[in-house]
Amino acid sequence: MNGLRKDLSTAAIAIVLLTLLLGVSYPLATTGVAQLVFPGASNGSKVEVDGKVVGSELIGQDFRDLPRYFQSRPSATEYSADVTYFNNLGPNSRDLSDFFAEQLAAYLKRERPYYPSLAAAEVPVDAVTTSASGVDPHISEANARIQARRVAEVRGLSLDRVLDLVSEHTDGRFLTFFGEPGVNVLQLNLALDEGAAE
């Protein structure tokens, strides 16, 4: 009986100590370091315009109902940052095939009035697929160049001016060789608004 009591008290002390160490001290320490070293990123990389938060550099947003803006890639979570996930469907999934077909049809319907010769085979993969997180803030440069025709016409801007903005807001590869160049949709849309106001 004494052995059991000793084991239980040792286990209880270990639980309390480990909870304080790993459940309280460690998270507070890492949060403090992040606030000191990376204050912007640790607070969500918020983007403010005139003192108002309009989004984040790290989280995609829904611009589908606003034809004057570039559109983000599809999201399995409706761009909700607190429930990020990949759709996790396999390549033989009928649901996934239906999702791609639905996204492709929506993309063509939105872009063809401004790009009549646009064929389904020309649509970039990121225009119909979700990212691993479901909230990627970037689209491919090819996707942005297709959308530029719509944005230019709706806003009454020259296509060359909009394409210049796309080029200015295209991020290069990480460390020059990881990943692909991408266009941050929110930053590009904000630049369009600033340009339209000039």
Q: What report would you give on this structure?
A:
There is one protein chain. With about 200 residues, the protein is mainly alpha-helical. It folds into two domains: about 1-40; about 45-195, no CATH class. It has helices spanning about 1-35, 40, 95-110, 140-155, 160-170, 185-195; strands spanning about 45-50, 50-55, 140, 170, 180-185. The strands form two sheets. A three-stranded antiparallel sheet has the order 3-5-4. A hairpin with a 2-residue loop joins β1 (about 45-50) and β2. α4 (about 140-155) packs across α5. The longest helix has about 35 residues, at about 1-35. It is elongated. The mean pLDDT is about 90.
- Major beta sheet, strand line-up: 3-5-4
- H/E element order: HHEEHEHHEEH
Largest sheet: 3 strands, antiparallel
Gyration radius from CA atoms, angstroms = 23 Å
Total E-strand runs: 5
Poorly predicted parts: none
Report the structural category.
Answer: mainly alpha
Indicate the percent of residues in helices: 40-55%
Q: Which overall shape is indicated by the principal axes computed on the Cα atoms?
A: elongated
Amount of beta strand: 5-15%
What structural keywords apply?
single chain; 198 residues; mainly alpha; 2 domains; three-stranded antiparallel sheet; two-stranded antiparallel ribbon; 48% helix; elongated
Topology:
Blueprint: H1 2-37, H2 39-42, E1 46-49, E2 52-56, H3 94-111, E3 138-139, H4 141-155, H5 159-168, E4 170-171, E5 182-184, H6 185-197
Antiparallel strand pairs: 1-2, 3-5, 4-5
Helix pairs in contact: 4-5
What's this model, at a glance?
With 198 residues, the protein is mostly helical. 48% of the residues lie in helices and 8% in strands.
